[in-house]
């Protein structure tokens, strides 16, 4: 089983084991591919998908296919010198846009590498029921001209902006919670 499939299955199993329905799934960054994959498999359990500065799944395309230049960036970050060329070093808290010294001190030791194959597996996006799930995109605008910027959203997507770095759950948790609560009430 591929890494993306494993992450998708983890969420599906949690939904099934806990018998969760009418769920709002929030996917951050790479997590956009995960929630998109979950929606493909169990759309009947999902009320809304919220993409938080996240990849937007495209049929039969991997993260490397979706984001131009990402494969080269990741190749430069592989942990080859540690004998772990299958792992990509995490960005630092500062690279994610975190500026508060206390947050940086808390966050950096908790960051870990990601498996290379999280980004090279294509995702099938073909389920018509999944397409009908309401979707929101939350763009973290201070992350720069981001690879995650939602440029080609369909008209039926809601679009929101938070003027914070990529890890807005760290830099502006209250603002994020307020925004997510508005989505819950729709």
Structure description:
The protein is 35% helix and 18% strand. The model has no long low-confidence stretch (mean pLDDT 89). It starts with a helix and ends with a helix. Strand 1 (23-28), helix 2 (31-41) and strand 2 (46-52) form a beta-alpha-beta unit. The chain is globular, with a radius of gyration of 16 Å. Helix 1 packs across helix 2 (31-41). The strands form two sheets. A four-stranded parallel beta sheet has the order 1-2-6-7, with helices on both faces. Strands 3-4-5 form a three-stranded antiparallel beta sheet. The longest helix has 15 residues, at 3-17. The protein has one domain (3-184): 3-Layer(aba) Sandwich (Rossmann fold). The chain is of the alpha/beta class.
- Low-confidence regions: none
CATH fold naming:
Rossmann fold
Reported for the largest beta sheet, the result is: 4 strands, parallel
Structural Rg: 16 Å
Shape: globular
**So how many helices?**
8
CATH class: Alpha Beta
Determine the fraction of residues in helical runs and give it as a percent range.
Answer: 25-40%
Output the strand order for the largest sheet: 1-2-6-7
| CATH homologous superfamily caption | Alpha/Beta hydrolase fold, catalytic domain
End-to-end C-alpha gap: 36 Å
Number of domains: 1
Strand composition percent:
15-25%
Order of helices and strands: HEHEHHEEHEHEEHH
Count of individual beta strands: 7
Report the structural category.
Answer: alpha/beta
């Amino acid at each position: 089983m591929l890494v993306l499939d494993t992450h998708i299955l983890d969420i599906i199993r949690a939904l099934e084991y806990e018998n969760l329905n009418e769920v709002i799934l929030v996917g951050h960054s790479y997590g956009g591919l995960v929630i998109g994959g979950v929606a493909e498999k169990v759309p009947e359990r999902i009320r809304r998908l919220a993409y938080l500065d996240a990849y937007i799944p495209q049929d039969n395309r991997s993260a490397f296919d979706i984001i131009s230049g990402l494969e080269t960036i990741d190749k430069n970050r592989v942990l080859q010198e540690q004998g772990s060329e299958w792992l990509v070093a995490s960005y630092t808290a500062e690279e994610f846009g975190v500026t508060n010294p206390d947050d940086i001190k808390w966050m950096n030791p908790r960051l870990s590498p990601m498996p290379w194959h999280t980004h090279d597996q294509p995702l099938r996006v073909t389920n018509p029921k999944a397409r009908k799930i309401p979707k929101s995109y939350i763009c973290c605008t201070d992350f720069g001209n981001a690879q995650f910027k939602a440029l080609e959203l369909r008209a039926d997507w809601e679009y929101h902006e938070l003027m914070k770095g990529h890890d807005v759950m760290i830099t502006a948790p209250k603002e994020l919670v307020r925004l997510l609560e508005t989505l819950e009430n729709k």
